[in-house]
Protein 1
Amino acid sequence: MLDQAELIRRYLVTDRTVPRVRVNFITSLDGAATIDGRSGGLGNEDDQLVFDTLRMLADVIVVGAGTVRAEGYGGIRLSREDAAWRLGNRLPAQVPVAVVSSRLELDPRHPFFGDAVVRPIVITHAGSPPERRAELAEVADVLVCGERAVDPAVMVRDLADRGLGQILCEGGPQLFGDLIAADCVDELCLSISPMLEGGGAGRIARGHSDAVREMSLLHVLTAGDMLFLRYARRTPPPS
Ligand SMILES: NC(=O)c1ccc[n+]([C@@H]2O[C@H](COP(=O)([O-])OP(=O)(O)OC[C@H]3O[C@@H](n4cnc5c(N)ncnc54)[C@H](OP(=O)(O)O)[C@@H]3O)[C@@H](O)[C@H]2O)c1
């Protein structure tokens, strides 16, 4: 079993003034991002501890609308202990969650909004349906980051301008593909689950870009047969 104090030491970023996009995913040994359409079947309690610790260390959690729909995101609340750690480190007790969407087919009564413990954020672009933007503005802060799609670089800048520079992206594959294409991935935390999934599940990134980004290994943690890899970008971010 992993120890949270050790995880904090391994994943803590000391300079929070520099915006940082950290992406967290889990995959099977043969590259599947899901089992039966969700990531939960790949994890275990050690992965949950890493997942929760990364949330605790973030300023904001960002997730694509497909993942909100598939995984039923809603009511994200850090444990009392994790909230106390944040308060002790001069951070707000809870972490806001932002959803990235183009179509904005998100019900304002969805638990993502209704059960949020901090006012959620909707990240969209100028071409999304204005009436849906207005409807969602009743239950969330709406950020317009780009003209015809969410531009990841604008998203990072706008979140950082709101004091939310330590960004934890929890997927999914389309959003990750867009972040890779825009060269906005500073870090990938990847859990490798000791399973083979011989079906048709997709991989953790999907997109149309032919971008190739080299990453450097920062650490490998093991717990039982599960691996926890931490990689950081090798080349400096575009200015
Ligand atoms: N293994 C893991 O760790 C992990 C993690 C997360 C998710 N998943 C799995 O991934 C699957 C979902 O995949 P997905 O690719 O559909 O997820 P996704 O990336 O979360 O969602 C895709 C949706 O996000 C919005 N979006 C993404 N990038 C955008 C951009 N640049 N501009 C505007 N909107 C953008 C669009 O929403 P609209 O359609 O609303 O316009 C798009 O349809 C689920 O099965 C989930 O369980 C696995």
Protein 2
Amino acid sequence: MAHIWPIGGGKGGSGKSFLASSLGRLLAKAGKKTLLIDLDLGAANLHTMVDVPYPDKCFSDFVSRKINLLEDTVLATPFPHLFLISGAHDSLDIANLSYEKKIKTLKSIAKLKYEHIILDLGAGTAINTLDFFLASGNGIFVTTPEPTSIENVYRLMRAIYLRRIRHYFTTDEFKALEKKVKELLGDDYFNKPENIVAVVRKEFPEKFALIRKDFNSFHFKLILNQLRKQDSVELGSQICKIIKKHLGLHVDFAGNIAYDEHVHDAICQRVSFLDRYPHTRAANDLRELNRKMSNSFGEQLILNYL
Ligand SMILES: Nc1ncnc2c1ncn2[C@@H]1O[C@H](COP(=O)(O)OP(=O)(O)OP(=O)(O)O)[C@@H](O)[C@H]1O
Ligand SMILES: [Mg+2]
């Protein structure tokens, strides 16, 4: 089964698509059959970063049943071993993908025959985005060093955490939990996972043990993109420490990618950055990240809510 790498970030422009296309390119270059799936529906642009200027089929053809099998929406790219399911032409927003279609998509992804599958998710915390992120234990969060971007990625992590906790409760049990949190702590506290976890630990100890075990099987990673000279190289590990403290969620800091004007140049020329500018700082950072991440997989496919 494929290694699935969902890439998410709270804020638009943090570099999710740039990272997805670059990791895809590096894995493919190492001879690994790799598929990129653009799930940033409504704002898809991954095709441009892998030199597929005019995709003639895309993900929404599968959603609308114009194409029956997800694998038949796959496009070749100019790069050996690198394939794409494009989101171009998708007027659909991911938030509007129905539950049935989401499950059908996830089941189809699980059957695809690739060594690596990279999911480029849009910004934000739509439930569908959270579920695609949680489809694998290898989720990657991307943020820039700007406080607004960090704030949004934290919000995304918190939403993912809550979504996963929710999975362990029936609707009635979750309502009971909500009531208990409000009773013990007041109305404002339900959005704070740390409070919910404290109540789960006390009131539902057997579920608490399951949730803790579940979260230990995730190998979430954080990447800090667009790091400029004046930014601290320690910022990423500091963010991970704060997340551990406040959410109890273990996220590994995978590394920094330097801010590099060549990224902009490559995108404007509609060519692959790593091929056009292989000897730049950002290209070195990407290669280093790829090396590191290829050696640390979490559980391959969770999908246990299917
Ligand atoms: N390391 C970098 N150095 C310089 N510029 C960068 C870098 N990474 C990304 N960028 C710039 O940021 C822009 C946004 O990147 P990208 O499209 O990958 O973000 P995104 O997170 O996918 O955004 P969206 O949520 O809108 O899809 C790029 O067009 C590029 O100009
Ligand atoms: Mg994008």
